[in-house]
Amino acid sequence: MRELMKALSDFETQLMENHGVTLNEAMTLCAVGDECITASVISERTGLRPSHTSKVVSSLESKKYVIRKLGKQDKRQMYLSLSTRGKECLSRIKVHAFDIPPMLQPILQEYQQSKVEGL
To answer: If you ran DSSP here, which 8-state letter would residue 37 be given?
Structure first.
């Protein structure tokens, strides 16, 4: 367990040093992508609890990476999308050649394979 936490910490350090975002912020940027979605959808896609999602979204909003919009039909619903700055950050993350810790490599390879197979 300790090795897994160390590997994730090392990966997050790379994200912070190269892109100025935490692992949860990067996951949230990926979850939003080109869509305009609610915080509950972000929670579902990232596996973060709603209260933690709210904190991550607020952090991204303070960095000007996320824009909040009221729903057109239901004014009580809040929708989130990436700003130009957020899209640029996500693009840089997607093309960055990360030094993936050996413990995380099998997980990443399995994910990439499932994407190729359309699962």
So the answer is: B
Domain 2-116 has CATH 1.10.10.10: yes
Torsion-angle region of residue 64: left (phi > 0), alpha (psi -120 to 50) or beta? left
Residue 49: which residues within 8 A CB-CB, separation 6 or more? 43
CA distance 20 to 13: 9
Residue-wise pLDDT tens digits, 39-92: 999 999 999 999 999 999 999 999 999 999 988 887 778 999 999 999 999 999
Residues contacting residue 10 through CB under 8 Å, at least 6 positions apart: 101
Q: What does pTM read for this prediction?
A: 0.85
Taking the domains of the chain in order of start, what are their residue ranges?
Answer: 2-116
pLDDT in tens, 89-111: 999 999 988 887 787 888 878 87
